[in-house]
Amino acid sequence: MRLRQRAAILLLAAAGGCSDRERQSAAVQVGVIGTVRGLKPGYALELSEGTAMGMVFESLAERDSMAKAIPALAKRWVSVDSQTWIITLESGVKFHDGSVMTAADVVRSWTTLVADSTDGDAPSSVFMLVQGAADVRAHKAAAISGLQVIDDTTLHVALVSRAPALPEALGSRRLSVMAKGSAPWAPIGTGPWKFVSGSRGDSVIRYVRHDLYRGGRPANESLLVRIVDQRAVAATFAAGLIDCMADLTPRIAGTLLASRAIKISSQRQSVRSRVLLNFANPALRDIRVRRALLLALDRRNLMFARGSAGMNLSDSFVPDFSSPSDTVPLTPYNPDSARRLLAAAGYTDANPLRLRAPLPLGDSTLRSMNQVVSEYWLSIGVRISATGASGDDSPRTLPVSDVVVWTEEPALTNPEDYLSTVGVEPPFGYTDDGVQWRNATFLSLYQTARNTRDPQSRAAARRTLVYLAADSLPSIPLYFEGSSEAQSGRVNACQTNMPRFATSRILRP
């Protein structure tokens, strides 16, 4: 009898172990919205491409919860002087084809990004600050002179000017490291997942785990990226065709909140939405007009119209995660006060304020934020004319517009840097330095906030900067968006360091 019981127990244990293996052999399914032109680091500007590409490739750095650069393929970076950096790589890192990553692979990947990026995929200004990058970009040289290999694990970087944000730029997905011979639909990286199949136009891209991944092999044997229409996200989750989805827009996250079978979590708030104002229009230099436009916006309603998951309403240009000292009282929605301010500035029903905005032409199933904002301003007597341009175009390409809703992720790490992007850099539509916004008081406070060692002086300068930003800068703050992610009940975890999902375990087949 005892032998039979023992045999039964062993049989059950074996069956349980087999079940676990079967569950882990199932693919984790990752959903993305958009198109995927190919798995090439330079394509990672779009979230869909960044997710699909991020399974295969890794960057020199990663970001911690405060967006600070931390080591990845590079184990350290040292600024020798203001324009010279030494980057030391991890040794022995293997590509999916078995070759070992060296500094030469980093140089080739960096050069490819600078030389091959086209149209909206142009490399960021930090990458272009390397000596010789402009020549490669203009196809006047084949190599970036400021990138020099010292040995297999050491790289010398010479810049044309200071770039304190270089470590953060090293964490860009677009500067991921490719092996020689890597191609958009035959990618060879160092990441936890190896490409198996997929081509442009496919709805599914398949991967298998990289068993020699230095961070420990993924728990599951395979993974797939499923490309879905944004209108079908909830239905695709319900059908069991998506387990994990990262970088959700607030609107999509809001639609998924109603499902008890889907878990939504939000990350730090770093994406800033604001209305850019073109100070080339004299009316917008009048503080009464700018205050009226701010008071006329029901920004809390705007935020919920976008879907409130992972969002935060703020009068500040600095997200809440940076410092509590930057918090200022929220400006209330008050259209009556807005009308009075416009009247005081000389704009009445007989002489309305006229502004040009890039409203979309024709019918649209989803109203753009430009439309919604314009409707609020129409309600206080402002006359809005459509320029015909798309609100998604670069502000630099919209010189005929007076106002445009703009969403951006500055990729900066402290309050002073966030503020500098709205105070020191000009807004859209400026071609003459004589009309670019400059404010000596703002710049002086900015330097105090950046350079003083006294915490109280820094905090006071920051608070004053935020107040100045609300009234003096050529833009209107709306809200910050955080990164939201969703997971189905079929898996136990979609990691916060999406999109790699290296330890997501299948709970139910």
Features:
disordered N terminus; 15 helices; single chain; 509 residues; alpha+beta; four-stranded antiparallel sheet; globular; 21% strand
Structural class call reads alpha+beta
Query: Kindly state the mean pLDDT as a whole number?
Result: 77
- What profile does the largest beta sheet have? 9 strands, mixed
Give the C-alpha Rg: 26 Å
Identify the overall geometry: globular
Helix content range: 25-40%
First CA to last CA: what distance?
Answer: 35 Å
Number of helices in the DSSP assignment: 15
Task: Please state roughly what percent of the residues sit in beta strands, choosing from under 5%, 5-15%, 15-25%, 25-35%, 35-45% or over 45%.
Answer: 15-25%
Topology:
Blueprint: H1 2-25, E1 28-33, H2 47-54, E2 61-63, E3 69-71, E4 74-81, E5 84-89, H3 103-116, H4 125-128, H5 133-137, E6 147-151, E7 154-158, H6 166-169, E8 193-197, E9 204-209, E10 222-228, H7 233-238, E11 244-248, H8 250-256, E12 262-277, H9 287-295, H10 299-305, E13 311-313, H11 335-344, E14 354-357, H12 369-378, E15 383-386, E16 403-408, H13 415-423, H14 440-451, H15 455-472, E17 475-488
Parallel strand pairs: 1-10, 1-11, 14-15
Antiparallel strand pairs: 2-3, 4-5, 5-7, 6-7, 8-9, 9-10, 11-17, 12-16, 12-17, 13-17
What does this structure look like?
The protein has 509 residues and is an alpha+beta fold. It has 15 helices and 17 strands. Strands 1, 8, 9, 10, 11, 12, 13, 16 and 17 form a nine-stranded mixed beta sheet that branches. The protein has a four-stranded antiparallel beta sheet with strand order 4-5-7-6, with helices on one face. Helix 13 (415-423) runs antiparallel to helix 14 (440-451), helix 13 packs parallel to helix 15 and helix 14 (440-451) runs antiparallel to helix 15 (455-472). The radius of gyration is 26 Å and the shape is globular. Mean pLDDT is 77; it is low at 1-24, 321-326, 361-366, 391-395 and 423-438.
